[in-house]
Every structure is written in structure tokens, then in C-alpha cells.
Amino acid sequence: MLDGTALNTPAMGRARRDLSILAGTPVAPPFLIRIADDAPALSAYRALRHHEFVERQDLFDGTDHDDADDDPRTVVLVATAPDGTVIGGVRLAANCADDIGWWSGSRLVVADVAHATGIGAALVRAACAHVESAGVLRFDATVQDRHAPMFLGLGWQDRGAGPTIRGRAHRRMLWPIHQIQRTADATKALLAEVLAPLGAQPGGLGPSGFRGDDGAPVPESDIIAACDAIIPSMVERDPEWAGWCSILVNMNDLSAMGARPLGFLDAVGAPTRSQLTRIVRGISAAAQAWRTPVLGGHTQVGVPSALSVTALGRTEKPIAAGAGRVGDTVSLIADLGGGWRPGYHGRQWDSTSSRSADELTRMAALPAELRPAAAKDVSMAGIAGTLGMLAEASGTGAELDVTAIPRPVDAAMGSWLTCFPGYAMLMADRRPIPPGPAPTAGAACGRLTTEPGVRLRWPDGEVTTAVASTVTGLGAA
């Protein structure tokens, strides 16, 4: 009160409880959700399932146990009371023997429906978070009609009527996962607006047919020029790898254009001589590996870390990214060897640093030998985002057949479609592009379509949206 005396009202009591986290007073939550990684929790969850689905709802005869329960990949999340009692759970399982990033949720159950406010919804939210963190690209569920409003309220999409099981109608529900869209937005969506002043100049952003391409044909010549910068945080954290990648990404650009490399120009800045030496060491190792010299450039010490490289190549018939047509087959040629770069798991696949110079130069020459109608090397936008750029430049959309995409066994599909894969080329042509020689793998895995954006086609015929529309906004080349 104003006179200094305390007035203990119910509202103030609630305020104290609400602010207990600020005051440091521990408050036990009504339940916790965790992975059921112990036998007692799994047994308790399965007992809840049996009681609800076999005994009470009579949806199954004798048992609701199925193959998903025996799959070692299956994850069970349980809700536990403060005393450890399991009061609810949900099961998450892969839908294919080869995990292509398609999972389903099922057997959602709570112990006491009348007093279980919030437990079911919390389990569903936890399930969505878990599968997204695991790199899943499609997550769906078949739910009873009476539960559909809860799922819709949590942001799920209704995909239509499902089966009717013993008189209980079900709906097919899909959780929208935007991992690929977020990657494309974060890396490429701003380009059209930011680069508009350059595009306004005659000849800006490349000649007609090559607008926004991997490399730029130099007017009145057979020279292709490409340029890439490495993000400063990577230069600071891993200087040799940054140097290596500055050559790698430029070689990929020239390769996608069908150009033979002539040389590089580098611009390197570093705060110390030691840092500068390590960056140059990486550049030198890569230049020697691809048998292409660094012709010159600019080097400066005592400045923040910075690295960019320009590549020069030659071809009389450059391959454009924007020369695809509706109906073209999309093929992916990639080196699936190597593994995740330490410190960049799920973001950078290193297939090149262990390859010989013969292997690297042979892979670099593949697009020129295969001569697809259109080609683009896979950049930081990932396979799906880069395909979106190829399609945008071609004035089309694209569809990927998820099961046909060549992929390393150690890479989850969600990570593989959004990472920088080292060496990977997307090609579009009226015919499937044949796989190149070892160490590359290749397959026809999609098609160019009339609808803008990129979509994923799944084994059951379902099609989901990966990229809703154009990627860069630059439009057709």
C-alpha cells in the first residue's frame, strides 16, 4: 500500500507465483516431455496405448503393436508427472526402409483425458520440434476427426479424409516444414532488390540468357569470369579450409558453364601474418589440386579477415543455367565421398579435400563433356534452392523425386538438400544425363514444370512444397 503496509490479495499471490522464476523460487511444472529411452517408460507408454486403443476404443484386436514399434529408428516421446509417472506419449517413425526424410506421428495418448489439459498439444508440439531438429522434410499423421481441430490450431494442414477404422473417421494431417524455404530465403531472396542498380545498366548482371548465372561471359570474347567471396567468420575460424573453398566454389562455377579454367585472382585480408599465411596456404593447395594457377591479386595484413577469388575460364559454347524448358529431365551429378566438415555438420559436405588432382580435374570437365541444355553448380542454397534458381532462370518451376536423389549414406535428406555439397551439378535436358565416371554418382531425379518454385514428390504420390516461388527474384535469364 501507499503507507508501506503489505496487502496480501489473491491477485498478488498469483503475481508472486508468476514471477517466481525472476525471484529464484523453483516451481515444478505440471509435466515434462522427454524421449523414452528406458524400458520402464516405454512399457508404461505401451500400457497407456493398449488401454486406450485396444480396450477402451476397440480399434485393434488384442494388441496395437506393429512394425514401427520394432524399428530401432522409432522415437517415443513421453509426458511425465513430477513423480516420474508416464501420463502421455506419442510415437515418431520413419515411413521407408531407406530414411528419405518422411516420418509420421502416431499412437498419441494421454492417461486421463478429463484432466489432461495441454498434455496432448504439448506432445504434438514436441514431436514437431524433434523431427525438424532431426532433418525430417515431411511429417504427417492420421488423426481421428474429433482431434483435427487441435491439430489445425497448432498449425497443421488438413490434407483430406483418411480411413475409417471401426466406425471412427480419420483425417490426414501434415505439419508444414520450411527448412528448404528458410535456406533459400536466407541465402538468395534479397538478390533482386539489392542488385537492381547493377541490372539497370546496359549489360549489367550478364548478357541476355546468362543473367545471374554462375559465371559471366565477357563481351566480345570466349572468356568466362566468376567471382565468389567466403564469409569472414569462416575465414577467421578455419583459414586453410576457407582458402580451399575459395578455389573450389570458383572451379564449380566455371565447370557448370562448361569452361576450361585459365587462372585465379585473389583478394585476401587478415589481421595477422599467421592468419594470412594459413589462408594463402589453403588457396595454394587448392590451386595446385585443380592444376590452375593464381595469376595475382591483392594481399593485405592488419585488417579484418576477408577473402574473395575471381576465376577466369574459356569456352566457345557456355552452358547457361537459364536454358531449361518445361518437361526437361533434371539430373544430379555429385561426389558422394568424404563426410561432413568438422565444425560444419549438416551444412558443408567435404568431398574434395581427399581427392587427387586427376579426380578433381576430371570432375571439373564433366559438364563440358556431357553438354546438358542447362546446368548449375549447387551453392549454399543447397540442392533444392539451387534447382529453384535454375528453374527461375529458365522461366519454369521444378519437381524433385525424393527417392531418386543421389545422397551419401551418412547425410540425412533434409541436410543434404540444404547443405553445400562440395561437388554437385544440377543439369536439365530433354534426356536424362548419364552418370559420369567415378568418383561421381548421378541420376535423373526430377523435372522442370510450369508452376514456379520447387516441389518434392514422395513415394506415395504426395507432393509437398519446398520453395513456394522464385528464389532470387531476378526472373528469367
TrEMBL record:
Residues covered by the N-acetyltransferase domain? 31-178
Kindly provide the name given to this protein in its UniProt entry: N-acetyltransferase domain-containing protein
GO process annotations (BP) = thiamine biosynthetic process
Q: List the Gene3D superfamilies hit by this protein, alphabetically.
A: 3.40.630.30, PurM-like C-terminal domain, PurM-like, N-terminal domain
Q: Which GO terms describe its molecular function?
A: acyltransferase activity, transferring groups other than amino-acyl groups; thiamine-phosphate kinase activity
A Pfam family per the record: AIRS_C
Checking PANTHER family in the record gives:
THIAMINE-MONOPHOSPHATE KINASE
Indicate the transmembrane segments per the record: none
